[in-house]
Amino acid sequence: MNRPAFWRRHCARRPRILGLRLLVAAAGLALLPTAHALDLLQAYQLAQQHDARLRAARAATDAQRERLPQAQAQLRPQVSFAASRLYNDLTRTSANFLGQPVTLDERYWSQNVTLSLRQPLYRPALQAALESAQAQVADAEAVLRAEENNLLARVAAAYFDVLLAQDQLELILVQRRTLQTQADAAQKAFAAGTGTRTDIDDIQARLDLLGADELRARQQIDFARRQLEVITGPLPSAPRGLDHERWQLAPLQPAELQAWLQRAEDQNPELAALRARRDAAAKELERAAAAHRPTVDALAQITRSASENVTTPSSRYTNRAIGVQLNVPLYTGGYIDSTVRQAQAELTRAEENLEAARRELAVRVAEQHRLVLEGRQRIEALLRARASATTALRSSEASLRAGVRTVLDVLDAQQRLQLVERDLRSARYQTLLAQLRLLVLVGDDATAVLTALAHVALHTP
């Protein structure tokens, strides 16, 4: 079938411009970062100051840190001071030598001042409490590290959602501009008598659909940005787009899953926190069992008193004492045995929670490792698909100039290229996020993760 001469002249003047405009604008120029755009590191720094979950974790860690000086204080000398001054009003009735009752009223002041020092010498329960406090502080520190790393994963997920929404809108706008050019050309061809009304109506239908897609894309950008601001607070500027022309993701080092599993076993902060909880539970069991043992304290005391009793109302005493005090628990009504059983149950629970977390972590690491490998394969496949779609578009444009294809065929080829480009960008974000989550799971801190991903062109100058 021969196409009208108008379309042949129109396409001959603009060789391959329809497809190349979509490809070039979508893949690079429109998404180059601006001077004031917000990069991922800056978003993470904002989140460190604003995120409520992280601030709560910091406060919880500060509270847990105080357990250590509290436990240490129990093993140090305990000094106390007590003083009293009392007014005594005594009424005493007694029989005289004739057997008659005699009542006497006596009023006087009495006072007492005591300074004492106690130093624990043998307190196994206090020593176990100190070691338990050390484990609890280690637990809190590990939880804080885990929360900081998880914050990076949450920020990155929200950040990439914004970038993907921005990319989708940009692709829609590029396609809409291309369609608008086609619509203008179709109107001119129809007015000249060389076009058809069907082409105009079909292009208009596509434009109307793109208008709806544009509205949804803008709403998605607003929603994704609000989700990011929940973590980071108000953003000073829009997130910086990914330079897809320079984008690359280095291979996993090492590539073997077992190496990543071992790193996670050794470094994951969540496992470190659960190990610390298990150790704390073991020390609490020792502390409970130590309640059966005797305790020994060194004691030094000085007491000064005056008018302590009615028989010597005008006397004064100074008593100095130093020695060792032994306390042996004999029977507590079963309380100690109960606390031992309770501590044993808590230890069992901590051990089982650790084992469950270890198994779950292995599954999560394997999943993210698989997503990274599959993501790389999907990106390579989509790159081949984009090249094929670009070739198909050029062929459709050439066929249109030759009169063997219609403008609708070219529009369909452009749409397929746009869909491939959209899927490619989504796959890049998903693969990048999977690798980031994998690094977080194996225990790399947030700064190290960002450094490891620095080769990705997120922060081009």
Explain this structure to me?
With about 450 residues, the protein is an alpha+beta fold. The protein has two domains: about 5-75 and about 125-155 and about 240-290 and about 335-450, Up-down Bundle (Outer membrane efflux proteins (OEP)); about 80-120 and about 295-330. The protein has helices at about 5-15, 15-25, 40-50, 50-65, 65-75, 125-190, 195-230, 255-265, 270-290, 335-400, 405-440, 445-450; strands spanning about 80-95, 100-120, 295-305, 315-325. A four-stranded antiparallel β-sheet has the order 1-2-3-4, with no helix packed on it. A hairpin with a 5-residue loop joins strand 1 (about 80-95) and strand 2. Helix 2 (about 15-25) runs antiparallel to helix 10. The protein is elongated.
Q: What layout of secondary structure does this protein have?
A:
Layout: H1 5-13, H2 17-27, H3 40-50, H4 52-65, H5 67-74, E1 78-95, E2 101-122, H6 124-191, H7 197-232, H8 257-267, H9 269-289, E3 295-306, E4 316-327, H10 335-402, H11 407-441, H12 446-452
Helix pairs in contact: 1-10, 2-6, 2-10, 2-11, 3-6, 4-6, 5-6, 6-7, 6-9, 6-11, 8-10, 9-10, 10-11
Quick gist of this model?
With 461 residues, the chain is α+β, with helices and mostly antiparallel strands. It folds into two domains: 5-75 and 126-156 and 239-292 and 334-452, Outer membrane efflux proteins (OEP) (Up-down Bundle); 78-122 and 294-328. 65% of the residues lie in helices and 14% in strands.
